[in-house]
Amino acid sequence: MDVYEAVTSRRAVRAFTDEPVPRAVLERVLAAAARSPSGGNLQPWHAYVLTGAPLAELRKRTAERVAAGDPGDERAYRMYPPDPKAPYTQRRSAAAAQRFGALGIRREDTVARGAEVAANWRCFGAPCLLLCYIDRAMGAPQWADLGMYLQTVMVLLRAEGLHSCAQMAWSVYHRTVAEVVVPAEDLILFAGLSIGHEDASVPYARIDRAPLAQTVTFLDDDGQVPPARPARS
Q1: Are 159 and 6 in contact (CB under 8 A)?
Q2: In sequence order, what are the residues at sequence separation of 6 or more whose Cβ sits closer than 8 angstroms to the Cβ of residue 172?
Q3: What are the tens digits of pLDDT across the range 120-150?
């Protein structure tokens, strides 16, 4: 699989089989992902990989909180802007409509939607979960490094014939996660990454992306370079 195929075939898979993921494959992927870009070579990520009994215990503890209607712990970071403007609100709404529509879940069916969201904390059936932490002393540039690291992991997983789903949802119950993985006190849980083989029997929507013209501006000989701003006095 070449890199273009790996990137374009990567998507958030939300239905996995229970086929195990070999430890050797995970080690190969994570060793290569360590080459991800990192400003100053800080390498601010710290990952925990759960399978077997530890993952089953985490699922059990989290399921108990979800079943009790527990809204989660205090947030270590804000997932989304409090009042996103256009076109971001529209893109998020469209993605949700495509995702739930593929499953036959109507917008007004809050019970079915809630059950689908709760599947996050079962890893959508995946047999492996990577939990990515960052030192709370790090700033925005290092959080960007974290995103590049996870993207690299996801692309490499595709090269191995595996799929994944990045989940900020795990940060909602970060205290329960900490009970199982016992991270250092100075670490913040950013996201989880469910890993495994896709269950192809479950329908899904290939979520649209914005046209290139909405997200990229080319400045070249065929276009007009905007005038320079006057220097400040």
Answers
A1: yes
A2: 71, 72, 73, 75
A3: 999 999 999 999 999 999 999 999 999 999 9
